[in-house]
Design goal:
The chain is 50% helix and 8% strand. It has nine helices and four strands, in the order H-E-H-E-H-E-E-H-H-H-H-H-H. A hairpin with an 8-residue loop joins strand 3 and strand 4. Helix 5 runs parallel beside helix 7 and helix 7 crosses helix 8. The longest helix has 31 residues. The radius of gyration is 18 Å and the shape is globular.
Length: 235
C-alpha cells in the first residue's frame, strides 16, 4: 500500500485507496478538465470535493499541495520513478497524465508541440478572459452598472478568442484534426461554461460560431465527458 503521509492534505481528506490517483477538485470549468481526462484514460482515481473558502481551497492542508489555493490538484502514488508526486495547475496535470499514459497527445514531436500550443492558448487566454467576462457580466454586474468598460473589454476579447477557435475548427472534428486530445479537454469546459455558468452565449454571439458550437456538442457527447463534468459530486 502506498504511503501518502508526506502529503498533509491526506490528513484532512484521507485516501480510501492510497494506491490510486487522488483528485482534489470541484465541477468547475477548471476542475472538470482533470476528471474528464481521467475518465478518458481509464485511470483509477478517488475524487475529493474541495469547497471554496477557508475550510477548503484556503485551508493549510490544501495549500500544502497547491500554494496558489486553487483547484484542481492531484497526488499520483505512482509518479516518476515509482514515487508519489503532487501536482497542481490543470494544464500541467493534463500534460502529465497524457505523457504518463501516452494517450490524448500525439506521439510525434511536432504534433505534441502543436497540441501544447493550444493547451497554452486556453490556459493563458480562453480561461482567464472568459472567467473575467463572466465575473463582470454576471457576478459583478451591479458593481459596474454605470461603467460598461470592464464587461465590454472582456466580452470583446473573449469573442476574439472564440473566433480563433472557430477558424481552427472549421472542417475539423477536433482541435488537432482527427485526434481528440488534451487541447480539446482543456478548452471546451470553458467555452461551454461561459453559457452554462454565466448565461453569456448571446452576449458572446455563440450563434455566429457554428463550428465551435458543433465541437462543444461532440465533446459533451463523449461518455467520459458526461461523467467527468459531474465530478466530484455534491456531498
Amino acid at each position: 500500500m502506498s504511503d501518502l503521509s508526506a502529503f498533509p492534505i491526506t490528513k484532512k481528506w484521507p485516501a480510501k485507496n492510497p494506491d490510486i490517483i487522488q483528485l482534489y477538485s470541484l465541477p468547475t470549468p477548471n476542475g472538470v478538465k482533470v476528471s474528464i481526462a481521467l475518465e478518458e484514460l481509464g485511470l483509477p482515481y478517488e475524487a475529493h470535493r474541495i469547497e471554496f473558502g477557508p475550510d477548503g481551497v484556503k485551508s493549510p492542508e490544501f495549500i500544502s499541495l497547491n500554494p496558489n489555493g486553487r483547484i484542481p490538484a492531484i497526488i499520483d502514488p505512482n509518479g516518476p520513478d515509482g514515487k508519489p508526486i503532487g501536482l497542481f495547475e490543470s494544464g500541467a496535470i493534463l500534460v502529465y497524465l497524457a505523457e504518463k499514459t501516452g494517450k490524448l497527445i500525439p506521439a510525434d514531436a511536432a504534433g505534441r508541440y502543436e497540441t501544447l500550443c493550444w493547451v497554452m492558448f486556453q490556459m493563458a487566454g480562453v480561461g482567464p478572459m472568459l472567467g473575467q467576462f463572466g465575473h463582470f457580466f454576471k457576478y459583478a454586474a451591479d458593481k459596474v452598472a454605470n461603467n460598461a468598460y470592464p464587461m465590454e473589454r472582456y466580452r470583446d476579447e473573449s469573442k476574439r478568442l472564440i473566433a480563433v477557435l472557430e477558424a481552427r475548427l472549421k472542417d475539423r472534428q477536433w482541435i488537432m484534426g482527427d485526434e481528440y486530445t488534451i487541447a480539446d479537454i482543456t478548452t471546451f469546459p470553458w467555452v461551454r461554461g461561459a453559457d452554462i455558468f454565466y448565461g453569456g452565449s448571446e452576449a458572446l454571439d455563440y450563434a455566429g460560431f457554428p463550428s465551435v458550437r458543433a465541437w462543444i456538442e461532440r465533446c459533451v457527447a463523449r461518455p467520459a465527458s458526461a461523467k467527468g463534468l459531474e465530478i466530484p459530486a455534491s456531498a
